[in-house]
Amino acid sequence: QVQLVESGGGLVQAGDSLRLSCAASLSISVMAWFRQTPGKEREFVAGIKWGTASSTYTDSVKGRFTISRDNAENTVYLQMNSTKPEDTAVYYCAARRFPRVATSPASYDYWGQGTQVTVSS
After folding, report:
1. Which residues, listed in sequence order, are joined to residue 62 by a DSSP beta bridge?
2. Which of 8, 74, 75, 98 is least surrounded by Cβ atoms within 10 Å, i.e. has the fewest?
3. Separation between Cα atoms, residue 32 and residue 30, nearest integer Å
4. Phi then psi for 2, rounded to 5 degrees?
5. Distances (CA, A) of 96 to 2, 22, 31, 82, 87
6. pLDDT tens digits, 93-104
7. Distance CA 14, CA 96 (A)
8. What SS3 state is found at 13?
């Protein structure tokens, strides 16, 4: 069983930066960030393969967000730059045993509790 603990959410103004962290209790093949707003499905944001550090992003965050990992700390980060009001959501960390980044929430085995990110205009 892998436990995921997120931190770093908060309230920022549009254009500001924010960094989310997710600490895993064990090393695992793939970690990703999803986000969700009320009444909408959970949306893939970015994912990273632990071994190669290869990453995948949804189009709306490319060039603004960066996912990275710290092997020693079993921690994945989401650096959010040039934030927009439409980035407002609860952000969830997810982990997957199969070594391929997937964009469907159903493909992930473990989830964090979520952290709120609010971007004001």
Report:
1. none
2. 98
3. 7
4. -105, 130
5. 10, 14, 6, 28, 24
6. 999 999 999 999
7. 32
8. strand
